Amino acid sequence: MSIIKPILLASLLAPGLCLAEASNFNYVEIDYLQQKIDILGGDVDFNGFELSGSYEVNDEVFVSARYADVSLDEDVPGLKADVDGYALGVGYIFGSNSTATVFGELSYVDQSAKASDGLTGTSAKADADGISVGFGVRMNTSERTELNFGLSYVDFDEGGASLGYVEFVFEFVEDFSGTLNFASSEGDTSAGFGVRYSY
Fold this sequence. Notes:
- This protein is globular.
- The protein has 199 residues and is mostly beta strands.
- The chain is 2% helix and 72% strand.
- The termini are far apart.
- A hairpin with a 2-residue loop joins strand 1 and strand 2.
- Strands 1-2-3-4-5-6-7-8-9-10 form a ten-stranded antiparallel beta barrel.
- It has one domain: Porin (Beta Barrel).
- It is built from one helix and ten strands; from the N terminus they run αββββββββββ.
């Protein structure tokens, strides 16, 4: 079993998301993440943050960048574990109207995991990189709310995994929004909330 599980950086694998105006992929966002991972037959909790951004090159093409860092959220004496990583991507908007936008993204993903046991003095580290392909749909549910969902697949050297996600976006003042997100991959889950600024 790989020490690095895709769900640990779930949002790195999700296609870039955006706000209610069609074809607006210009934003920066920060999210808090809470994740539950199946490791050796038991659920283990991680939490951390993700910083992401996207820039629209033209009406059909956008570029994106993301960085995430999560740590073990368990009270185990002496045990520490951290996972961090980044993704750089380019996306294409296949179609857009006042109701929905359909898009895809191709990303390079790089991530690293470190674990140590202060009681025994042992430690381990693993690195992985690969390519992620994702497709998503944005649906404008009202003038201020939006529902996003999609699927992505990441191919690492040790194998691949698929991930599904859903996100709700609410614009509370002009250009500023709150977000709620959920992702799942092979029984592992990630949930989070954040703040986004659109420019």
